[in-house]
TrEMBL record:
HMA domain ranges (all copies): 4-70
Keywords of the record: Membrane, Transmembrane, Transmembrane helix
Keyword Mitochondrion: no
Domain of life: Bacteria
Parts of the chain that traverse the membrane: 73-90, 110-132, 153-177, 189-209, 230-251, 257-281, 293-310
Name of the protein in its database record: Sulfite exporter TauE/SafE family protein
InterPro entries: HMA_dom, HMA_dom_sf, UreH-like_TM_dom
PANTHER family the record matches: HEAVY METAL TRANSPORTER (PTHR42208:SF1), HEAVY METAL TRANSPORTER-RELATED (PTHR42208)
Keyword Transmembrane appears in the UniProt entry: yes
Gene3D superfamilies in the cross-refs: 3.30.70.100
Gene Ontology MF term list: metal ion binding
Length: 316
């Protein structure tokens, strides 16, 4: 049997865990020899035996993994329009002479909670759902709903604690570089720029694709070595995840242990409603709907980036 190597467009991948989700779904097909997904270039290279597999099966697998092999420009245009309008009204508006009148901490915490809620749909469908499902499959005595909820509660408790501690540490590190107001504002502007770029990536508008955040922990680190849901949840704070790493950057810009920890804590609380009921949503929620919510989360991240770059709206 002859082998064929082809590349397929995969739109919607945001991080390494998304690549894993695509690769695992395609690998279920017969005749697959090699798979290499790349979220930065929105593509996957597949080598397969043409007698056992074909393009249509691979495209269907991509769709089943929650992504698309076709580019929906309408969604991107609408999302970008919302971003531009948000940037216009949230910043100082020279045409109207108005400026945003939010209180920094209150507005930020509300947006962080909503952001956590939106991104949790993506976590269930793409990243956290895979990890959590494998964790529960390894646990014992979880046939009844009560035990299943207990396992989910342990996992999410570890995750919230991990996010909060990491947020505090990162925030404290930010304070080291914030000796003066000028330096602190500069750090926030840089962080805001990277948050805007990250948010645009989540929407599907990719710029500066060569900028990558190092991957220190892969999914197998947690899944294969630990059976305790709490430990797996705690270690999930170190997994490569676009929104999570963006929030860590947000915590860094706070320049405070308390604000960094509080920001990550509020963000993690926003993810709890969906993550605690993951068993229901993972089987019933349409993956394409999850992807749309993820794009909305990208818009929120862009707005947060704009807020951060506005000196009138910095943490007080």
């Amino acid at each position: 049997m002859s082998k064929i190597t082809k590349f397929f467009h995969v739109y919607g991948m945001k991080c390494h865990s998304c690549e894993v989700a695509v690769e695992e779904e395609i690998n279920k097909l017969q005749g697959i020899v090699n798979i290499d997904a790349d979220h930065n270039n929105s593509m996957v290279i597949v080598t397969y035996e043409n007698a056992l597999c074909n393009d249509d099966k691979i495209k269907l697998a991509i769709k089943n993994s929650g992504f698309s092999s076709s580019n929906n420009m309408l969604i991107k245009v609408l999302a970008l329009s919302i971003v531009i309008i948000s940037m216009f009204f949230l910043g100082n508006n020279p045409l109207t002479g108005s400026s945003a009148s939010f209180t920094s901490v209150e507005t930020s915490f509300i947006m962080l909670f909503v952001l956590g809620f939106f991104t949790s749909f993506h976590c269930v469908g793409m990243c956290g759902g895979i990890l959590l499902t494998q964790t529960i499959n390894k646990a014992e005595n979880i046939k009844d709903k009560k035990s299943s909820f207990k396992t989910a509660l342990l996992y999410n408790s570890g995750r919230v604690i991990s996010y909060t501690i990491i947020g505090g540490i990162v925030g404290a590190l930010g304070s080291i570089f914030s000796a003066t107001i000028q330096i602190q504002n500069f750090i926030k502007i840089i962080a805001g720029v990277f948050m805007i770029i990250s948010g645009l990536h989540m929407i599907g508008i990719k710029i500066l694709n060569n900028i990558k955040i190092p991957i220190f922990f892969k999914k197998s680190t947690c899944v294969n070595n630990h059976k305790n849901p709490f430990i797996v949840g705690y270690l999930s704070g170190f997994l490569p995840c676009g929104p999570l790493q963006t929030m860590q950057l947000y915590a860094l810009s706070s320049g405070s242990f308390i604000m960094g920890a509080s920001s990550m804590f509020v963000f993690s609380l926003g993810t709890l409603p969906i993550m605690l009921s993951f068993a229901y949503f993972s089987s019933r929620m349409c993956k394409s709907f999850n992807e749309k919510l993820y794009k909305y989360a990208g818009i929120l991240i862009v707005i947060l980036g704009v807020l951060m770059m506005n000196p009138r709206l910095h943490f007080r």
